[in-house]
Amino acid sequence: MLTQMTLADNLAVLESSVPGLKAERNKGALQNDVYEAIEDLCHLGQRAVANDTCINYPARAKSDLALFRKLCSIVSDRSAEDRDRYQALLDRAIEFLWQIAQIPLPTDGHLEFSG
User: Fold this and answer.
1) 57 close to 103: Cβ distance less than 8 angstroms
2) Which residues contact 12 (CB under 8 A, 6 or more apart)?
3) How many other β-carbons are positioned within 10 Å of the β-carbon of residue 54?
4) What is the number of alpha carbons within 13 Å of residue 72 lying toward its C-beta?
5) What's the predicted TM-score (pTM) here?
6) pLDDT in tens, 13-23
7) Which of 79, 90, 100, 103 is at 20 to 30 A from 62, Cα to Cα?
8) How far, in Å, are 22, 48, 99, 103, 108 from residue 57 at the CA level?
9) What pLDDT digit, counting tens, does each position of 28-64 carry?
10) Do the Cβ atoms of 31 and 37 come closer than 8 Å?
11) Average pLDDT of span 81-102
12) Distance of alpha carbon 2 from alpha carbon 10, whole angstroms
């Protein structure tokens, strides 16, 4: 069970993993997929933490959750080493996406439109 963390704290944990993931990305498809998914999630998280209103966070999180669940499924069928390396990180990413999904759309619209 993960400790509940703030959006910014979860982002910091995920961002701290990116250099190591990047160094491993050429080892195989799984490593590359995890790296790219986490890196992309960090960019989304930076926008969320900065209160960028140009994103429909609930819709984006729903889409990304499907990807991270698929990665968890793949990792669960891999070696103990891969599970040890990636499972907690993927669990953290899913928790982070659940937090992002709770960001409400501004009442005056998003994507710089009002209405």
Assistant:
1) yes
2) none
3) 10
4) 15
5) 0.89
6) 999 999 999 99
7) 79
8) 26, 8, 10, 6, 15
9) 999 999 999 999 999 999 999 998 888 899 999 999 9
10) no
11) 96
12) 11
Tokens encoding 28: 């195989």
pLDDT exceeding 70 applies to what percent of the chain? 90
Tokens of 83: 């599970």
Query: Tokens in use for 6?
Result: 């703030």
5: amino acid identity, one letter: M
Q: How far is the C-alpha of 10 from the C-alpha of 20, rounded, in Å?
A: 17
The H or E element spanning position 110 is: none
With beta carbons less than 8 A apart as the criterion, state whether 95 and 2 touch. Answer: yes
Written as one letter, the residue type at 69 is: R
Confidence of residue 24 (pLDDT cuts 50, 70, 90): very high
Pick the closest to residue 60 from 79, 74, 73, 47 (CA basis).
47
